[in-house]
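Hey, resending since the last one bounced:
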Amino acid sequence: MGSSVITGAAFLLFIVGTFIYVIILYNELVRLRNDNDRAWANIDVLLKQRHDEIPNLVETVKGYMQHEQQTLVAVTQARAASMNAASIGQKAAADLMMTDALRGLFAVAENYPQLKANQNFLKLQTRITELEERIADRREFFNDDVNTYNTRIGQIPDVFLASFMNLKPRSLFQVDEEDRKLVEVKFQSAAGA
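The structure tokens again:
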């Protein structure tokens, strides 16, 4: 009788231990999923702030850049695409489009000395540049969180629980092919300036 009680207690202890282990794994996977969502929400807040600044920037630039309509249209279209994006993938693609459009706008602005001297433009340019840097930082945090999440849901024993919870791998925030190209830098000589 004594050995059956010990066997029963050991079996019960094993079941309780397994149950507690599964709960710990479950909670950890939920935490990782929520970390991903929070990391994306942080990016989304910054994207919204940047979107709110774009109309002010376009209005400031319009008067100076009448011959650069294509650049202004690209910024406006990028903002519209960003505002209409619903999924994380669509928002990421729209963000890359916006980044490219803003780079083009700031590059073209270099050709307009009066615009470069406009205090409102300079403030907006500084604000948007700061937001761009913060967005880049948050992208890195997001990718770290997504990588940790994707690794965990692919490892044993987490993969079994992740499958039961219907957790799917998430996409990293990746760089557009255009951003991978080498940038040509040209310096003007002091005599030519």
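Confidence is low (pLDDT under 50) at residues 185-193.

Sorry for the duplicate.
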